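Translate sequence into structure tokens.
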Amino acid sequence: MQLISWLSREILYGVVITWCSVLSLFGQSGPGAAIIDNNARPQAFLQDGITTPNDESTPSFTTDGKTLYLCDSLKICVSRWDEGKWTKPKTVSFSGKFKDWDPFLSPDGRRVIFVSNRPAPGAPAGQKNNHLWYVDRLAGGGWSEAHHLDEPINVNGVVAYAPCLTRAGTVSFCSRNRDGYKGMGGYWAKWQGDHYEKPRRLRLNGDSDIYDPYISPDERYLIFASNGDLYISYCKGDDWTQGQKLPPQVNDGGQNGSPYVSPDGKTLYYSSYKVNAIMMIPIHIMAETKPPLEPERKGVF
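Result follows.
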């Protein structure tokens, strides 16, 4: 009887420990919470001459962290780190005539991809498409004229927003009423050497709408907005895991969007509609299943 009693206690103890371990996986210690320390708090990101939060888009930085591109009042602007502060944003050469926003600087710094309502090639007269466009860095340091991304990325009569480019040339964006899906869907498409594959829809939060998918330069993880909150997903083979919600320091009950991670991987930037500002918060994202890709993209577009 003593042996049976001892075995019963050991089995019960083992079951309790096992269930405690399993249940802990579903708490705040999950992958989404783990990338932000409990004592971290977001702060507004401001440039010189801007003393209160304003309606800018999240920034996109050069690899040295000393130059950034963002949207201010539907114009793409540049700001530089100078004498311990960010200079007042100035409109870039390729923007100002049309409504332009959501600029993203490629990891190698040679291309800016952005959204614009400028007339799209082949579109009916008077039709305004919010499509993806890009400019390339010229030998002298300036930027080329804007070029339209053709199908299958841009589709006539279908909008596209929040573009992102990885080192391998993979593009992600969000689009409404595309390929039979009536809501706002997140999409990604790999560069095939001389063309893009057909964009695939990102199903990262059940069947909920996906906004502003940001894929890390090495394609290890993806941060996106859904139902007003920010989530993180990790690469799994040729697909992505279901999103894990970021902790309350970020998801504070307001409407968040436009996530972007600094080139050194240490800061998350995002738009908060609760305070109408760009916010920033320290993060740490551990290595996941996918190894880094080649540091330079070759022959993209």
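Note: The first strand starts at residue 43 and ends at 44.
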